[in-house]
Amino acid sequence: MQVATSLFYDRSSTSINALGAKAEALQSQISTGTKLAAPSSDSAAYQRLAGIKRDAVADKAYVANLGTAESVLKQGDTSLTAITDQLQSATELVTQAKTGTLNAANRKAIGEQIAGLVATLTNLANAKDARGQALFGGADGAPAVAISANGTYALAAKPVSGIPIGDGQTVQTNETAARVFTVGGKTRADGSIAGGTNTLAMLSAIATALQSDDFKASALDTSLSDIAAASDQVSTVQASLGARAARVDLETARLTDVAADREATRSGLEDTDITTTVVELQKTMTILSATQASFTKLSALSLFDYLR
Predict the structure, then answer these.
(1) What is the pLDDT of residues 42-94, one digit of tens each?
(2) Number of other residues whose CB lies within 10 A of the CB of residue 300
(3) Are 201 and 118 in contact (CB under 8 A)?
(4) How wide is the angle at C-alpha 292 spanned by C-alphas 301 and 17, nearest 5°?
(5) Least confident stretch, 19-33, 77-91, 139-153, 260-274
(6) What is the Cα–Cα distance from 193 to 123, expressed in whole angstroms?
(7) Which of 4, 16, 28, 133 suits 285 as a labelling partner, its CA being 20 to 30 A distant?
């Protein structure tokens, strides 16, 4: 009788304690909004959550880099459009100069305007990007366009490193001045440009010729075709930047989708389903109340029968 009574009390105590603990855990899940109170709650889920959080932190950095890349690429595209406009103005001015109806003063004035276009192109190339770097500068940090004492134009040639936008992925957000202002050059293995015609030097030569007292019309024989080739080169670079901008947009959209999927997975592992948990709590409390009432009645009945 002692063994049976002890076993009855032990089992009842264990059952009531377990139901009470379950009810307390469910109440905690509802109040905190999370169903994982400790790693021991679900070790597999905790491991998955740790991986999800690591990936989220990495992707957050990539998203920031993508934002920077998008900004630099847009600025580059805007600047290249402005450069194209300047070259178009040069084409119009040279066309006027080639008519042969201008007097020397008008011709020199056109030369001065073209020299001004060269200065504008130099300023556009040396503009700073969103990171504070020369928009068309090189990896060595030198200005995109440097004018020497003798009037020659040195163009930054070695491209800067790409911006990381994913695991093992980078995007080159800027182009060097050499690539923008060199026509017919060859690209070396390190990305620099060898040979070719310097657009700024070419335009400067046209401006000098037009302002010269011994100007000869033959000096403009190839000027229009040279400027057209320079414009084509700028368009090629601009198209390349556009392709990279499209890639950045695609990667941004992909990371947005991945983040949404990751959040859904995290929520499923960690967040409390309030409706389901409330129902489960009510069910647990009902069972607990019934168990306590049953224990009270059965224990009283057993004690009465024993005494009788």
Answers:
(1) 677 767 777 888 878 888 899 999 999 999 999 999 999 999 999 999 999 99
(2) 10
(3) no
(4) 125
(5) 19-33
(6) 21
(7) 4
> Which tokens go with 66?
């993508």
Distance of CA 191 to the CA centre of its chain: 23
DSSP state, residue 129 = -
Name the packing angle between helices 2-32 and 274-307 (round to 10°): 160
Residue 133 makes CB contacts below 8 A (sequence gap 6+) with: 141, 160, 174
CB 206 within 8 A of CB 114: yes
Which among 172, 171, 166 has a CA at the least distance from the CA of 63? 166
Quickly tell me which residue has 């440009």 as its tokens.
Answer: 193
27 closest CA partner among 272, 286, 292, 268: 272
- Other C-beta atoms within 10 Å of 206: how many? 27
SS3 of residue 293 by DSSP? helix
Give the residues across from 145 on adjacent strands.
Answer: 155
Q: Which amino acid is at 28?
A: S
- The length of the chain, given as a count of residues: 308
d(CA 110, CA 117): 11
| Closest by CA position to 245, among listed 61, 80, 59, 67 | 67
Task: Look at residues 226, 178, 48, 199 and name the one whose alpha carbon lies nearest to residue 118.
Answer: 199
What whole-number distance in Å separates Cα of residue 94 and Cα of residue 308? 125
